[in-house]
Amino acid sequence: MASEIRVNKITHTAGVGTITTSADGIVVAGIVTAATVVASGSITGEHHGNGANLTNLPAGNLTGNLPAISAANLTSIPAANITGTLPAISAANLTNVPAANITGTLPAIDGSNLTGVGASFGNSSVNTSGIITATAFVPTSQTALTHRNRIINGAMQIWQRGTTINSQGNGQNDYTADRWAIGHNNSHMAAVSQSNGTDAGFEYCARVQRDSGNSQTDQMRFHTALEAKDVIPLRGHFLTLSYYARKGADYSEANSKITGVRIASGENNDGDPNAYSGGHWTNATTLLTGTPTLTTSWQRFTHLTINPVSSAARSMIIEFRHTPVGTAGSNDWYEVTGIQLEIGPVATPFEHRTYTDEIQRCRRYFQKFSAYGDHHHFGVARAESNTARTGIVVHVPMRALPTIACNGHRTFRGDGGYNSESTSTPAMIYSGAGWDADSNIYTVDFPGHSLVHNRMYCLMSKTTSTTALTLDSEL
Amino acid sequence: MAKYRFRNHHSYEDDGTTIKSTYQDIEDTELKLGIPINEGNRHYQQYLIWVADGNTADPAS
Predict the structure, then answer these.
(1) Contact of A352 with A375, CB cutoff 8 Å
(2) Is the CB of residue A382 less than 8 Å away from at least one CB of chain B?
(3) pTM for this one?
(4) Does residue A13 sit in helix, strand or coil?
(5) Nearest 5 degrees, angle CA B37-CA A170-CA A273?
């Protein structure tokens, strides 16, 4: 049988703790101790004490302002949970940031504090539309900032032998523009002529053209070569070749290509370019074979050698090869200019040289003394029996003891006017020995005269062209 | 006449007839070139190839 006690207040014997009952519940005055408290409703009022055991709190119940505590233990926060605007704090402690994590666009900040950058740009390029000023520029692979172009007459400015040169064929080097020769097998089939290069940014270009109506299909080789003195500084370097080229409307190569833009080196001294084509260079090594496709518009082509230049190289050829097909039309040609060979892996803008600079470089290999008739004064000659011996002053010392050509010469006496005339071929007096490569006066014998031994004569030209005398020490 | 011929060029004593010294070169008789006997000269190299092909230059007169 159920029983109940109905009271409105229970008081401890000490008179402190009380339980007061009412119609709404009970009120406890004092400390309540219990093993488990199960509340079916809200527990209201102020809560005090340690929160160590406040686990699994629903996030929805964490509202209001957090206390101003340290964030030292906020570790492993998922990045996705860090949103909104970061405070304007100093970045002084952002150390050891992985480079891969610095992406996107950098702010347009002043770079004046980018100090100590050193070599940290690595393989990247630095591009700027502004002016770069530095205490010094020290290229590491391109070497010199000037005199970069190792090709002489790459802009086809100099044509001492004439502005249209026919090929002879038969494996000969027929020099055309200075330092540039054409070679092919069999008989004459082509010509190299000076042409307008202004659309490519040059005054001239070289046009390599098969004769209209010609049906020879021999490979044509247009080339230049470097002497050992210019090859040795290239040893151990990769090279970049660049040039401008276009084709004529009837260019007959099967795929509109220059089928072999070639650089090769050899260990023989001052190699003859045609001897390379004949397979006569020592340890010939191909460094580059390009196959540019031409159009009727100018294009700039660049090629990088596949290997560095051999440490034993003493010869180098730069050659353009193509093989025509069928019968030539009137425009079976290609044109080329702006040829530049430089150390390093990139093609820099073409290095234009002054005309004077260029022709002096060319004269190391070929010199022409111009005059018509007997108007060129070779010099005062001493009679060596019936040979007039004089000193020819050269523009620049030549590469090697030159071949001499002169189709006529005259002697005059100071007391008697005209004395004698001869068409005998002159001779370089130091033909066998005694050649001084740095001399600017070459002693030359002009034979075939009627002279009195040891007398002095004025030696003049007697030519039927505008060329009084030539000296040739080409490769 | 061969394409090439040797030539002797003399220097004389004061009498103008006694030979003091002589040097030699090669004339390309077709192109009228005076070719020095020098390894660095390309025309001399061409002459050597011509000789290697079995040809013989005319001797100096």
Answers:
(1) no
(2) no
(3) 0.80
(4) coil
(5) 60
